[in-house]
Write the structure tokens for this entry.
Amino acid sequence: TTQAETSVTLYGILDAGVGYSKVDGTIVDPVTNQRVSLDRSRFGMTDSVKRGTRWGIRGKEDLGGGLYAKFQLESGFNLSKGQSTQGGRLFGRNATVGLGSDNWGQFNLGRQYNIGSRYFYSVLGPMFGGGFTQLNMGSGSGFSSVNWVRYDQLVTYETPTINGFTMGLGYSFSADDSKSNQVGFNTADNTRAITAALRYGNGPLSAFISYDQLNPSNKLSDQQTQATPRSYVVGAAYDFEVAKLALAYSRTTDGWFGGAGLPGGAVGNFSGVPTNVFVDGFKSNSYLVAVSAPVGAAGSMFGSWARADANNKDLTGGDASSNTFSLGYTYTLSKRTELYAVGSYTDNFAFLDDAKVKTVSVGLRHQF
Amino acid sequence: TTQAETSVTLYGILDAGVGYSKVDGTIVDPVTNQRVSLDRSRFGMTDSVKRGTRWGIRGKEDLGGGLYAKFQLESGFNLSKGQSTQGGRLFGRNATVGLGSDNWGQFNLGRQYNIGSRYFYSVLGPMFGGGFTQLNMGSGSGFSSVNWVRYDQLVTYETPTINGFTMGLGYSFSADDSKSNQVGFNTADNTRAITAALRYGNGPLSAFISYDQLNPSNKLSDQQTQATPRSYVVGAAYDFEVAKLALAYSRTTDGWFGGAGLPGGAVGNFSGVPTNVFVDGFKSNSYLVAVSAPVGAAGSMFGSWARADANNKDLTGGDASSNTFSLGYTYTLSKRTELYAVGSYTDNFAFLDDAKVKTVSVGLRHQF
Amino acid sequence: TTQAETSVTLYGILDAGVGYSKVDGTIVDPVTNQRVSLDRSRFGMTDSVKRGTRWGIRGKEDLGGGLYAKFQLESGFNLSKGQSTQGGRLFGRNATVGLGSDNWGQFNLGRQYNIGSRYFYSVLGPMFGGGFTQLNMGSGSGFSSVNWVRYDQLVTYETPTINGFTMGLGYSFSADDSKSNQVGFNTADNTRAITAALRYGNGPLSAFISYDQLNPSNKLSDQQTQATPRSYVVGAAYDFEVAKLALAYSRTTDGWFGGAGLPGGAVGNFSGVPTNVFVDGFKSNSYLVAVSAPVGAAGSMFGSWARADANNKDLTGGDASSNTFSLGYTYTLSKRTELYAVGSYTDNFAFLDDAKVKTVSVGLRHQF
């Protein structure tokens, strides 16, 4: 039943390795109020430490006069089990169709990253191990609204790049369709999201600023619907040639965007930093300093320190400042293939004053 | 472990947009017998309004002497969430392998459309917005056995086209393997389906007639197994150049084939017109009139009216005649890409005398 | 966000047909201790009788100096329903990335076959209908550790082929991540597997020997963790040109690796021979004799007899010797396409003295 066909690009990134993770300390169970141990450790195969494993299909059609249609379908999965990630979605990483013009920019419809996560990655990206979950606060807490945040039902518009500036805007009719308590048929029964960001690039300098906001579903409790989670992020990187330096700051209020599960799953009734939650009066500031430097012809090192503060215990049960220190090395075998090693240490995971997470791993990233 | 390889076509259709839907009125809950409101409305992203979003792989091998092998794997999903459709099946739209000959026709094995749905689409197809769920009664009720009906475990045979005539026959050993109450190991524990249709095409005229029948699973109740759902459909289209006209009629007895869910999900214990059900003594007649006409070089308009009558309330709880009016416009940007707008109104949805459904949407369909 | 791209091979095997299966006899329900009938039969569409239906993506990158990177993603599904197999995994058949050298062999990481199953297939493979579930004891019991065993989180190393010898070694950090009672975050909470095998090929002769071992998860019961399942397999094939002969022997102790479900699902509390189980003191010996011979230019016949003995009833509730007799015929239409017919009879299925399984089917296998 299909007639037309054309060239289409099949692509992917595969990332797997071996690593060791350890969680230490104790927490107070938020339901039972009893102190429970977090101690656990694992030596085993690792998935997607540097970049998220994926396969995808993408294409672009020239419609004449600078106009084009484009699409991208990207399916996340893990190599250790062969299972779909992103909650079992087939194309959970990206599923968009769009129309654009060299003159006036482009529209994309579908499940996709929020604008901030994309710009964060373009500025703080591979050079600083941007995909490493450690840098990106995966092992702790921090840059809530650029922690690889994807929205369902997201319509985005992005300008062309003019004098180094690019701007993107988006509106999601339902931020996460898998959160059944925030999804319904009626428009306002869904948690909706606004996402916007501005990016600048000029020679050695790149920078961005982003804003995200969640409008609560009517299905949430009265207390939750009083909150309007907002998050600002600013970041910049400068390439000094002998090294590259990056700095970022974020402020999240009234809730949380992209969370981070406790490695190894829930302990008692605590499972980590939640995603897309509404917590009236909560405030967090986050800071990041990262340095990367070439080592020989094919190597690169990076180190980063990230910190997150919370003004109260309402998000996770803790309000201790959390720090994550990461150190990584990548060795390039070709444009498409590299080996890496990375280590990371987080104290006060999830703002909890006795929770520590350590991970080290070596791995292989291959791209096709 | 695989040696042979050859050219294979990767293809797809992506369809997304933005729209508004509204459900009005009340129904009597079939279990509690209390009158409940249907009122709900949504403004948001839409999926697959014109054509079902899909990606697929297909190929054909020439075996010499007119003989060939062919296959088609087609995976349905939505862009708004990136999720598999057709009940989470990987290749839920089509999964067939077949053997054919230019001389004697072809056999296909696997999950696929019934013959009637394919011929319905080839006659009443894109020209009349055949993929629009409105035309196809998705928003109401009507052409039960050609409402994009797919069967699991379907073996089909189709003749070559001779003097404009093509005929197809099929037998399904289990019409829907996801209906656990109609599926078992024993042959007769599965609901089996017979599907047959004849198509004619000659210049401006195309026409078809189809027949479908369900044989009930032994696992159903005594009352249900007394029913043998049958459905006949006849349809024809004629191209007058300034406009194209299409007419269709259907009669379904003793049950229902492809149903239509209530937009937004169940209200109380009512969830819409069910699929593959056995209702002894139920009878329905359906009628369709559709017109399409080119508008300028790249545009096309279509309008349609469909009506369905029921002889009793045993299928859905109502027996009111249901009407669906649709109006659509498509604008072609290229062979592969078009924009569309469509609106639809259904009264007496699911034969219920106070249930109304309205939808309007604009969207983009892109093909690769 | 992806820059590099290159040639990649999209491939697949599709296998479907029509067949009849019958289960006869009675068993003693392991929980209720009551004798229950197994009688059931089915005539219907068959899936993957000769080869597992799949689609996949694979590629290899030359890194210079004999070094290469490679990957293979292989997704199992059925044509009858269009559903993912291997427990719903997206790439349930294989999901690996690896690095190798013409000089020192290759490493692969991810979900993949154990070494024994791969070597078993390379020696006892298509020529003897290796994919036919009958030969491979799918309909009964037998060669536990080469019954298409795949492990999650498997790291393998394989030598280059030297003087006809190839050796492979592997370690799985979690043999089956879908077995929630054998999976946890802590290293020792997972059932881990060791797999090793040696293969020899020289002209008409091919042979292999394999060893597998499971180390029990700490989450299992005290009794289960006392068991360390081990399995040895030796097999050889010789091509006499007029016919090819194959012999194999296996010994499995203290549990079972790849099991076989009762066709049609559980009867009472009995569902077949289980997978990755720990049964202290259980021992089984298995034997296989297979012959294949060309019949005309395009045809091939094969026949096989397999037997399995058990020393006690602790695995399945029975300790009767089980025999499986199979007879098959394949007719090649092209390198990529063949028709087949196969019949199989098993007595004492799952070592149960009154359980019989018969199957016959004809089908089409197509490769792209």
Observations:
- Residues 138 and 196 of chain B are 22 Å apart (CA to CA).
- Residues 9-367 of chain B form a domain with the Porin fold (CATH 2.40.160.10).
- Residues 1-5 of chain B have pLDDT under 50 and may be disordered.
- Chain B is about 5% helix and 55% strand.
